[in-house]
């Protein structure tokens, strides 16, 4: 019991350290900024709590993208996290809930992996190393800067453990099958994308097992059908409604959430395994320069680094225990998932080789499976590597350091001909060095944020239930995003409805509309607000009665009650001028925010 407690405490302390001295339930700081995806994830944390408290649907919201709505299952909404941490949201606020989820994402992912690894590794430090590698991998360290749904990862190890019970050990088939279905539904409610990647890994793994052991598969086919059938029934019973919402529910998005041409920009390269980038703490200037150039501007996503020492110990284990089924199997899973991260075709450095097509070229065209971005399959890679590392260290140590009568009796002739004790020592040393080189560049920076008083203060001209057109507009365009209005709405308790949304919005045919395309066809108001933020993709509308009339038409069509313009480092003067001309009156100033309230009454008087 003592080692288990120590392991859990260490993981929790490391998770807390990752975010520095900021309170785990802070509602005034967010890492690394209160903007972009972090603001969006805060909104996703807030909606289910609000929905539960008001008897609304936690999977669907009309509070944004008004008067239409959004489907949280078609987005990165992670409704299970919003529901599970609703008490934190109610007491401390949605930003506090997100802060806590991110920390628990590190700790619970590592803890789950540790206890799963204990079924194969008797030496607890080996399981600890594997849990550390999985829960604090470069993948998790990168994603924890923006994406709680890719940071909270305790369910993939649990899926692995239950599959081991059902498929390999064939114990308590009905019970474990039902539990497997429950865990799969839980993963669906956190991230369909992660579930799609797990599904690919499981399918390929089952094919490999059947191909390698056909007679055993035939012998135990009834048991497998019973266990997996129980899992399927459990999944259908518990997951039917959220799955329907995801596939056919209101405002659902059909097809891949990420455009194929965007997905293809997220590939890794052959060299990414050995060159650290800005996510890591240790390395030479030249290595960092090379690694950062491979990652480009998005180190959050380009996380497949292992380093030379860790690769060496993995190779040593794979060769030394090449006859061990578990080492063979997970070595293949690690290798296969890494190949998927390379994208649809091979890149060497920045040089593409489009004639060398890779497995992801097929996966990106399979419905539902194409929800998984290629580079994010590094999650599966790190899970498999954690198993290989833990099992290998456990066996090296068991036959070496703890074997009676073993010593340094033979001359070292390399790791494969050395004494068991020398081999074990070498393996542990390489593992320690390899894990040290994976130490991330933490803690994260955190940014203090505040909510403009117009959205929360007593005496605000915004009434409960109003429809607000806010500037900056919550849309994204290419590499730019302005999600602050979503954060303000979340922190204001969803007391008003918001025009616009930066996420997967369903168009007329349920195809995804993102960024500045949330209104079809593009309107003058959209052109005005997007142009004023980015200077593109539209030229500024011409001043004059025609433009003013189109703005009034938009305001009437979308039932806008209030227009708020919050000076926040983006142009405001021209936006104020357009609305002043359209409404024939200047805005009021509410504690630093420009506002027109009672817009529908203004329009009715014209």
How would you describe the overall organization of this protein?
By secondary structure, the protein is of the alpha+beta class. The chain has 2 domains: 2-437, no CATH class; 450-604, no CATH class. 52% of the residues lie in helices and 8% in strands. The chain contains 24 helices and 15 strands. It has helices at residues 2-17, 36-53, 79-84, 86-92, 94-117, 124-135, 138-143, 155-169, 173-190, 192-212, 214-219, 221-248, 260-263, 285-295, 308-320, 325-341, 360-363, 378-399, 420-437, 484-491, 524-534, 545-557, 573-583, 599-604; strands spanning 29-30, 60-61, 70-71, 345-348, 351-357, 447-448, 467-471, 476-477, 480-481, 497-498, 505-506, 512-513, 562-565, 588-590, 593-597. The strands form 6 sheets. The protein has a 5-stranded mixed sheet with strand order 10-7-13-15-14, covered by helices on one side. The chain has a two-stranded antiparallel ribbon with strand order 1-6. Strand 4 and strand 5 (351-357) form a beta hairpin. Helix 16 runs antiparallel to helix 18. The radius of gyration is 27 Å and the shape is elongated. The N and C termini lie far apart (76 Å).
């Amino acid at each position: 019991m003592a080692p288990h407690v120590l392991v859990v405490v260490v993981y929790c302390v490391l998770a807390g350290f990752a975010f520095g001295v900021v309170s785990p339930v802070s509602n005034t700081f967010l890492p690394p900024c209160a903007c972009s995806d972090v603001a969006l994830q805060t909104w996703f944390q807030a909606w289910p709590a609000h929905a539960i408290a008001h008897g609304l649907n936690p999977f669907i919201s009309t509070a944004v993208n008004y008067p239409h709505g959004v489907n949280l299952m078609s987005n990165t909404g992670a409704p299970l996290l919003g529901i599970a941490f609703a008490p934190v949201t109610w007491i401390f606020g949605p930003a506090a809930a997100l802060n806590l989820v991110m920390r628990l994402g590190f700790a619970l992912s590592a803890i789950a992996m540790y206890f799963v690894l204990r079924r194969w590794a008797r030496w607890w430090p080996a399981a600890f190393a594997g849990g550390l590698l999985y829960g604090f991998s470069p993948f998790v360290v990168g994603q924890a800067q923006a994406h709680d749904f890719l940071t909270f990862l305790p369910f993939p190890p649990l899926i692995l453990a239950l599959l081991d019970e059902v498929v390999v050990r064939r114990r308590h088939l009905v019970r474990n099958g039902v539990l497997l279905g429950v865990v799969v539904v839980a993963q669906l409610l956190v991230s369909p994308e992660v579930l799609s990647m797990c599904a690919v890994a499981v399918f390929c793994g089952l094919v490999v097992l059947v191909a390698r052991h056909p007679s055993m598969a035939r012998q135990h086919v009834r048991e497998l059908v019973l266990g997996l059938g129980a899992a399927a029934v459990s999944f259908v019973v518990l997951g039917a409604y959220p799955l329907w919402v995801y596939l056919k529910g209101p405002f659902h998005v059909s097809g891949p959430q990420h455009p194929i041409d965007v997905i293809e920009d997220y590939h890794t390269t052959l060299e990414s395994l050995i060159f650290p980038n800005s996510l890591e703490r240790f390395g030479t200037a030249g290595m960092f320069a090379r690694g950062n150039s491979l990652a480009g501007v998005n180190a959050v996503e380009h996380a497949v680094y292992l380093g030379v020492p860790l690769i060496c110990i993995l190779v040593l284990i794979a060769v030394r225990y090449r006859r061990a089924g578990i080492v063979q199997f997970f070595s293949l899973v690690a290798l296969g998932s890494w190949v998927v991260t390379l994208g649809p075709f091979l890149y060497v450095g920045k040089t593409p080789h489009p004639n060398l097509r890779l497995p992801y070229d097929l996966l990106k065209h399979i419905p539902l499976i194409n929800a998984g971005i290629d580079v994010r399959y590094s999650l599966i890679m790190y899970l498999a590597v954690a198993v290989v590392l833990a099992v290998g260290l456990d066996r090296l140590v068991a036959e070496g350091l703890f074997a009676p009568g073993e010593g340094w009796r033979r001359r070292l002739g390399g790791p494969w001909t050395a004494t068991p004790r020398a081999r074990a020592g070498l393996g542990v040393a390489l593992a320690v060095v390899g894990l040290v080189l994976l130490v991330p560049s933490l803690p994260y920076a955190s940014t203090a944020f505040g909510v403009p008083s117009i959205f929360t203060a007593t005496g605000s001209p915004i009434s409960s239930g109003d429809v607000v057109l806010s500037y900056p507009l919550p849309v994204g365009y290419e590499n730019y995003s302005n999600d602050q209005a979503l954060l303000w709405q979340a922190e204001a308790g969803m007391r008003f409805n918001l025009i616009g949304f930066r996420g997967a919005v369903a168009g007329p045919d349920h195809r995804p509309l993102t960024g500045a395309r949330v209104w079809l066809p593009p309107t003058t108001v959209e052109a005005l607000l997007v142009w004023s933020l980015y200077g593109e993709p539209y030229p500024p509308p011409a001043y004059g009665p025609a433009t003013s009339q189109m703005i009034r038409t938009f305001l009437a069509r979308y039932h806008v009650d209030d227009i708020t313009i919050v000076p926040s480092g983006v142009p405001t003067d021209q936006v104020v001028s357009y609305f002043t001309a359209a409404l024939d009156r200047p805005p009021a100033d509410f504690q630093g925010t420009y506002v027109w309230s009672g817009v529908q009454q203004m329009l009715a008087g014209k």
